[in-house]
Amino acid sequence: MRYLSVFTLFLLTGCLPQITRAPTDRRGYRLNEERTATVGQAILRRTRGTNISAEIWCGIFGGGWKKYGPVLDEGSVVEELLYQGGTAEKINIGYREFVVDRSPLTSRVIDIYGNRQYLWTPTNYLARPAFFQQLEYEKGDEDTLTLNYRNYRIEVQGADNQALDYVIVAD
Predict the structure, then answer these.
(1) What's the distance, CA 130 to chain centroid?
(2) Which of 50, 92, 161, 171 is the most exposed place for a label (fewest CB within 10 A)?
(3) Hey, how many other C-beta atoms are within 10 angstroms of the C-beta on 128?
(4) For the chain, what is the largest distance between any 2 Cα atoms, rounded to a whole number of angstroms?
C-alpha cells in the first residue's frame, strides 16, 4: 500500500528533470557554395559549444511532460564575419565573437525540489570586447581575391561598396 501511495504521489506531482547535453558545431554556410552578402550581412556564422535540453515530468495536474531547449550552454561561442563594404582598392570585413553568458538575470531558472537548473535563451550572448576586429584586405589586379582569417579561407569573386560575391573554401 505504501508503494502505491509513493507511485501515486510521483504520478500526480512530478520528478527531477532529465538534462541532456550534446556537443554542437552549427555552420550557417556550406563549403564551396557561391553566396552574396550585402553590407552589414554575415559572410559566415558558426556556433560551437554544447546544447542543453531538459525534459521534466510535471505531473498529471501540471500538464505532463514539458520540454525546454535545446539552448546553448555557458562557454559556447558564436563566430561571425560581416561584410562592411569596400572601395576599388580594399574590402572591409568585421569579425566578432560572442560567448554565452550564465547570468541569472538573462537565464530561465527551473527550480524543482531544490534542484536549481539554468536554461538559457539565445538572446543572452555577450560580445567579448577583445574579440571584435576590423579587417582590411587590399584588392589586387587578379579576378579573384583569397581572404584568410583564422582557419577560414574565402575566395572573393566580386565586390563593390554594396555587395560581396564569395565562396567559402575552407574552415
Answers:
(1) 19
(2) 161
(3) 12
(4) 86
Alpha helices, DSSP H, located in the chain = 2-13
Cell 582557419 belongs to: 151
Q: What does the block give as the cell for 109?
A: 531558472
Is this prediction's pTM over 0.90?
no
Q: How far apart are CA 88 and CA 81, in angstroms?
A: 20
Count of CA atoms in the C-beta half-sphere (13 A) of 66: 14
Structural domain spans, the chain: 2-170
pLDDT value of position 73? 75
- Residues 157, 170, 35, 123, CA torsion sign: negative
Contacting residues for 61 by C-beta, under 8 A, at least 6 apart: 12
Q: What are the strands, taking DSSP E only, across the chain?
A: 18-27, 34-38, 42-57, 65-72, 77-86, 90-100, 107-112, 115-120, 125-138, 145-149, 152-159, 163-170
